[in-house]
């Protein structure tokens, strides 16, 4: 009787599902992860994911709601299916690791409506050992020539109780929030990547790859652990595409531990190969600038007595960079438009000429004579169409002056991007992660590539691995960065950066602007970090352009700590997470690109702990000098204890373990240099 009652309830609550038929299946190369496709009695399509035979994703629906046609959801039949496998290795021109293995099994399932329109689409699943990517592939067809997509009906029905780390979507401050740690059922509308840890220890990251000509995906929590895709709004609908088209890949990264999420190459592997060819004109490097002085309110973006972007001031920064082996100098506020109220009011910006007190050609020549390059800055104030009207000329100006990296900016509240389709026409409002901005960012990257300029985007669209396809898209912001330690209320807490490693950083590089050795923001605000932790950020928060962000005089006050910043690399042959737990602690080792030197960065939340780290990443048979920069006795993230710091050396080998005590809010940084054979 109980079984009959259960069946009746299921039939009422989940009509058709009790009669679902599995129609296709594909497994990962190692066999641990399996994707299955079902069609139920209504002809609705669902997928599920199993790992080691246990459900990870329960039956989850797929489909579309259109503005210009019936929804594509019911009355489907499987028309064809095909599988294939791939196993090759490709080389990154720069990155966390030089060589990336791309190994997967693919299922392509063709679904056709049974009714008179007989619209069709393919679902493509690629299953890797480290996760799953799937997308819709919609061909040209008589009854679907243009798709006005109101909503994509993709679901992720999480099969197990889980803890989630997430930030809210569609809020005013874009992606710049502290992460919530909540049970899965307490998620509201979340941005991706969204990180989950199930009750039995499995780690998942839900995100997307290859976001091209499409709206960014957010996740809306429903009932019973279901997370539903919610596309970023647009006008008249989130997405308008002519057929044929493919959607971005929806991704599920899987790992038995937190570190495996970081070591995964899933997002990169789901992007197309490099379209730019030889990009050796981009050089990964560290850079200095006037940035921190601006956030301390010691200098200003606007012209006048406090103007930071003057010829004399920039010469001083160039000299500092040259003395300390830093390749780049970023100067914000160099161009007209900063005077007055520029926030979300960027129509006065001119990107084709400097202010009267900034000798751009002279400074470029002066820097070049010292082996330094200026880094450009294009803050749009969200007047994006206005920026695009000057884009070509602005990039030409950069190229003429040897500027090969440009930092772009889109400062305004979310949903307030200004779009003007014709000069003098109405101004429309868009979202930072909408379809229109997806296309804008690619226009900038493509135009920059023509002039051998790399792009570091701030207030950006999310990273979805497009750096593989366009390797001049080298970094971006897209999270709560170091500037909040200057004036934020509150500043970034100790758990923030060790949460970023397992959340935001899963999407790609971040220009976090580390290295604030003064540990003090505006009006004496304490940065909740030890001195050693600021060094560890250069290894833990990856970017091929890393800012040496503090004021030059503060580095002079801490020469021992500054030595690590001068020595640390920014481009890597290998990267490995040695230990970690989301939001608690992390230790990462990276091998310098083209050199036998390794670096290690460890960071901690507010709870002191000791990590014992195996050094089995070192070369066998070699001895190394470990140059250790660590928290001193009694160090802590409060008060003067932040500055308790020790620099020491010891000889180590591959079979050794290195014990590192990490203070609350603390960290450690280590450089491993091979010693001559005896």
Uncertain stretches of 5 or more adjacent residues: 1-18
* Share of residues in strands: 25-35%
Distance between the termini: 80 Å
- What's the number of helices? 13
The SS-based structural class is: alpha+beta
**Share in helix:** 10-25%
The 3D shape can be described as globular
* Number of beta-strand segments: 38
Query: Mind describing the biggest β-sheet?
Result: 10 strands, antiparallel
- What is the overall pLDDT average? 96
Radius of gyration: 26 Å
Task: Walk me through what this model shows.
The protein has 13 helices and 38 strands. The N and C termini lie far apart (80 Å). α5 packs parallel to α6 and α11 packs parallel to α13. Strands 6, 7, 8, 9, 12, 13, 15, 16, 20 and 21 form a ten-stranded antiparallel sheet that branches. The protein has an eight-stranded antiparallel sheet with strand order 1-2-3-4-11-18-17-14, with no helix packed on it. The protein has 678 residues and is an alpha+beta fold. It is globular and about 75 Å long.
């Amino acid at each position: 009787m109980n079984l009959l009652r259960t069946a009746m309830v299921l039939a009422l609550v989940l009509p058709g599902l009790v009669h679902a038929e599995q129609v296709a299946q594909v497994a990962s190369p190692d066999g641990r992860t399996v994707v299955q496709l079902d069609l139920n009695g209504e002809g609705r399509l669902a997928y599920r994911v199993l790992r080691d035979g246990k459900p990870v994703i329960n039956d989850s629906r797929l489909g579309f709601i259109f503005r210009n046609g019936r929804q594509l959801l019911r009355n489907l039949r499987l028309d064809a299916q095909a599988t294939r496998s791939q196993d090759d290795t490709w080389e990154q021109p720069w990155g966390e690791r030089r060589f990336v293995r791309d190994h997967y099994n693919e299922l392509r399932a063709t679904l056709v409506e049974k009714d008179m329109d007989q619209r069709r689409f393919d679902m493509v699943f690629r299953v890797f050992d480290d996760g799953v990517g799937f997308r819709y592939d919609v061909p040209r067809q008589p009854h679907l020539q243009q798709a006005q997509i109101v909503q994509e009906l993709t679901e992720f029905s999480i099969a197990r109780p889980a803890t989630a780390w997430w930030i809210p979507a569609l809020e005013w401050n874009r992606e710049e929030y502290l992460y919530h740690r909540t049970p899965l059922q307490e998620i509201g509308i979340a941005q991706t990547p969204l990180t989950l840890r199930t009750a039995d220890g499995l780690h998942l990251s839900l995100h997307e790859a290859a976001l091209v000509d499409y709206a960014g995906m957010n996740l809306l929590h429903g009932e019973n652990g279901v997370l539903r895709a919610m596309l970023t709004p647009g006008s008249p609908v989130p997405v308008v595409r002519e057929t044929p088209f493919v959607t971005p890949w929806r991704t599920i990264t899987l790992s038995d531990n937190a570190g495996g999420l970081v070591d995964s190459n899933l997002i990169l592997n789901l992007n197309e190969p490099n379209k730019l060819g030889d990009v050796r004109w981009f050089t990964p490097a560290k850079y200095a600038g006037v940035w921190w002085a601006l956030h301390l309110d010691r200098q200003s973006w606007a012209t006048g007595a406090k103007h930071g972007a003057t010829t004399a001031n920039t010469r001083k920064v160039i000299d500092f960079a040259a003395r300390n082996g830093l390749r780049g100098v970023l100067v914000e506020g160099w161009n007209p438009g900063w005077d007055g109220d520029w926030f979300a009011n960027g129509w006065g910006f001119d990107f084709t000429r400097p202010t009267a007190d900034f000798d751009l050609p002279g400074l470029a020549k002066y820097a070049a004579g010292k082996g330094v390059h200026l880094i450009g800055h294009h803050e749009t104030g969200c007047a994006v169409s206005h920026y695009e009207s000057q884009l070509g000329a602005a990039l030409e100006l950069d190229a003429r002056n040897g500027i090969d990296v440009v930092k772009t900016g889109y400062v305004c509240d979310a949903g307030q991007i200004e779009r003007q389709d014709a000069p003098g026409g109405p101004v429309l409002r868009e979202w930072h992660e909408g379809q229109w901005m997806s296309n804008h960012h690619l226009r900038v990257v493509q135009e920059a590539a023509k002039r051998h300029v790399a792009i570091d985007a701030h207030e950006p669209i999310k990273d979805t691995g497009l750096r593989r396809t366009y390797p001049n898209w080298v970094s971006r912001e897209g999270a709560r960065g170091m500037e909040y330690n200057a004036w934020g209320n509150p500043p970034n807490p100790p758990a923030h950066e060790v949460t970023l490693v397992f959340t935001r950083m899963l999407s790609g590089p971040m220009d976090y602007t580390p290295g604030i050795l003064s540990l003090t923001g505006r009006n004496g605000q304490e940065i909740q970090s030890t001195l050693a932790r600021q060094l560890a950020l250069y290894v833990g928060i990856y970017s091929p352009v890393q800012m040496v962000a503090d004021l030059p005089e503060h580095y002079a006050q801490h020469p021992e700590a500054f030595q690590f910043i001068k020595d640390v690399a920014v481009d890597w042959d290998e990267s490995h997470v040695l230990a970690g737990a989301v939001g608690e602690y992390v230790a990462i080792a990276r091998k310098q690109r083209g050199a036998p030197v390794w670096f290690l960065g460890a960071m901690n939340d507010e709870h002191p702990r000791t990590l014992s780290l195996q050094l089995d990443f070192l070369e066998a048979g070699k001895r190394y000098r470990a140059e250790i920069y660590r928290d001193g006795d009694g160090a802590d993230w409060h008060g003067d204890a932040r500055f308790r710091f020790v620099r020491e050396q010891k000889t180590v080998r591959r079979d050794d373990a290195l014990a590192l005590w990490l203070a609350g809010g603390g960290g450690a940084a280590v450089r491993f240099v091979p010693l001559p054979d005896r």
